[in-house]
Amino acid sequence: MTRKSKICEYVRQHSDRHGLTTEMVATALMIARSNVSKELNALVREGQLHKLTGRPVHYVPVNATATTATTTSGVANGATTERIPTAPVATSVPKPVVNDIFASMIGSHESLANQVEQAKAAILYPPRGLNTLIIGPTGSGKTYFANAMYRFAETQQVLTNPQGLITFNCADYAHNPELLMSHLFGYVKGSFTGANEDKDGLIQEADGGMLFLDEVHRLPPEGQEMIFYFMDHGTYSRLGETAKSHHANVRLVCATTEDPESTLLQTFVRRIPITIQLPAFNHRSAKERLELLKALLSLEANRINKQIRLTEDVVQALLGSVTFGNVGQLKSNIQLVCAQGFVNSIENDSEITITMDDLPQNIRGGLMTVASNRHELGAISELLDPVLIVKPNDGPTPLRNKNDNYELPYNLYEIIGDKAALLRREGLDKEHINRFITTDINVHLKSFYKQNQLEVSPENKLAEIVDQDVIDFTKTAQMTVQDMLGYNFKDNFIYAVSLHVSSFIKRIQAGKPMRQMSSDMLAMVREYPAEIKAAEALKQGLEERYHLPIPSPKFIIWPFCSSR
Q: What whole-number distance in Å separates Cα of residue 250 and Cα of residue 252?
């Protein structure tokens, strides 16, 4: 059992509704306090534990909640002792009498059940709800969840001035704190260069409604202080004002990808009584991941107004292709492969077909990721037919999310259709048309993701899911193997090999048997004899570094081939 698993199990077995502190766990398990703190925070990020506000911080399993926590903090006019409510017990949440927006959310009765109950409690808590912090990795659905909270508040008629979720991304002006604060709180004429008139900010605009602060960790300390003063008193001053204050009644929902304990002021965090941790895509069940994939495919089928046909291996490849970007990355990958399938099936008025040949190499490699995990492969295969067909308007209509960073602002399929018609008129054959349009698709999508800062460096995110020691080993192995083979690998080598090696090591350490090699992997071994020799060198390095018996280099060849 790993250190993290041991800590998680101890908290689950020994925690009451008040939770356990880092010191309690460290003393009981005789593990260094710093290591316990690190693992507890990792378990919170993974959605296995909740962190209760207060000092010292207490941790409880996801199915446990506390009603109140006493906290001492400093505010603008001096130190005060306050009793801040935390997540109410789920059974105390009143049953809504009108339609429940959350009911159609994938996972609302499974992996997100506790999060949904927390969200409902935050909205329905009298008299004006509770401020909420949503934590989750990039692409896990924080903005989507915030929109669902707003829609729930709207249907429960608890907003005095419902006008849509007011959204502000704190990262947009992080380089200019003055401009950032002027957007939030407004400003008076002459408060800075270009302030030619008085202007209200988003706080005033959201009066009677809900304000969503995305990437809240990018708020400067003075901004956090102004926000928590507003939480305490319901009043604020515009930039440049000294004697005058304004009142507003705003429900705040904040979101971050970071650990709030290390990136936000403690005085700010303590004023947010409900923390909702969203799980990473790969921590959700195979059933939920497949439902998410079908829902995203349904969106594309609606845009194309054709049914989409995928083979079983394509579905597995798409699910396995999600590495660091979670649901957002899955959506991007689906947009890409559907666009390519649309090109190849442009003359078919009723259906587009997507096969492995339509997938780019990085997505195709997802099939091997799934195949390398026997349990994962079995869980997904049980849910799949040989062919998946998704029709327009298939399934429930997803919540509209105007702030979805992964949503293209244009209809890519109309662009493809117009371009294909133009090229046909110019006399180009189907092969050349497909080649030109495929290039266009890549240009459009890469430009969009870069413009919206959705391109995430895999290596930057890798340390969140793989031990740094494995990454360091892979970097050294890359130089050795490149010298042996006489060519350089693509940028995804570190990512692909580190993930594969990490999974491989955990499997051997857990005593799980190696699965039989598939026909695809055996064919790969025959096709790449030089890479087998390189894999042998990697095998020896792994055995020396981790003292593990590795049965055959054939089991670790595929990342070499997919990263050529």
A: 6
CATH code, residues 459-562: 1.10.1790.10
Q: How far is CA 379 from CA 187, 287, 293, 374, in A?
A: 56, 8, 15, 9
486: amino acid identity, one letter: G
Q: What is the pLDDT of residue 251?
A: 96
Joined together, the tokens standing for residue 2 give 């790993």
Q: What is the pTM of this model?
A: 0.64
Helix, strand, coil distribution of the chain in percent, nearest 5: 50, 15, 35
Dihedral through CA 149, CA 152, CA 156, CA 162, nearest 10? 70
Question: Domain segments of the chain: what residues?
Answer: 1-64, 84-279, 284-451, 459-562
Written as one letter, the residue type at 111 is S
Topology of domain 1-64, CATH: Arc Repressor Mutant, subunit A (1.10.10)
Residues in the chain: 564
Give the Cα separation of 258 and 445 in Å (integer). 27
User: Residues of the chain whose pLDDT is less than 70?
Assistant: 53-55, 63-99, 395-410, 442-466, 487, 489-492, 496, 510, 512-528, 551-564
Backbone angles phi, psi at 442, to 5 degrees: -60, -40
Contact residues for 532 (Cβ-Cβ < 8 A; gap 6+): 525, 553, 554, 557
Beta bridge partners of 200: 186
Predicted pLDDT of residue 308 = 95
pLDDT for residue 318: 94
Query: Can you list the positions of beta strands (E) in 11-146?
Result: 20-21, 49-52, 58-61, 68-75, 78-85, 132-135
> What per-residue confidence (pLDDT) applies to 175?
79
Please tell me whether the peptide bond between 529 and the residue prior to it is cis, using omega within 30 degrees of 0.
no
Token pair, residue 564, equals 């050529």
Angle at 191 between CA 189 and CA 194, to 5 degrees: 70
